Amino acid sequence: MAKPDYLQFFIDPNRCIGCQACVQACSECDTHRGESMIHLEYIDRPESVQTVPVVCMHCEQPTCAEVCPADAIKRTGDGVVQSARKPRCIACGNCVVACPFGVPELYEDRKIMMKCDMCYDRTSVGKKPMCATVCPSQALFFGTREQIEQLRPLSTPVNTFRFGNQTITTQVHVMVPRSLVSRTPHIDVVAAMDERPLSRAVSLKVVSMSDAPEQRQAADGDPFAEVEV
Length: 229
Known about the structure:
By secondary structure, the protein is an alpha/beta fold. The chain has 2 domains: 8-192, Alpha-Beta Plaits, CATH 3.30.70; 199-229, no CATH class. It is built from 9 helices and 9 strands. It has helices at 21-26, 63-66, 94-98, 120-123, 130-134, 145-151, 178-181, 189-192, 213-221, and strands at residues 8-11, 39-42, 51-54, 105-107, 112-114, 140-143, 155-163, 166-177, 187-188. Strand 7 (155-163) and strand 8 (166-177) form a beta hairpin. It starts with 7 loop residues before the first strand and ends in an 8-residue tail after the last helix.
């Protein structure tokens, strides 16, 4: 069976909370049981605790398959790029170096390349990938385009990425602010590497006890009363 065309994979990096639920769930996928194929990366570890989940983007023209000398990496008719076929894989590592998203992993002990295959045993019958079923913040979402547009009215799914002079189109979509898409229809990955996050000031309203006698009275009479400070 094939993955239904109306179901797509969406990543919203802004919603990732770094809980690692996706990493644990991925290891339970039947196609690579015991191994997690999802990467949870820190965007800028010295400056922020923000994380982002990295799954295979399932490129329309997968570079990993193009550089494989043994023709071990296949793309299904519905666009899902599979892990290397064990009888063919020679563990050369070409795919690991060539992938612009840094997804394939080479297991030298087994002489095989393995990567995210969008839980093909599940998505080919209309079920969600394991990671998307457990993500509490819906940073990983598997559903229809209409559903994601209703859930994220301020964002737009983008599946075109530019690496220098090369443009890559993928099956997986990344949610980006709608205001940015209006300026450019793709994500310039190389340019984004040099971007710095905008500084944000946190403003907290402080209420003194003298300004809020009713709150002071409540606090005096009840040691567990909530007082805004």
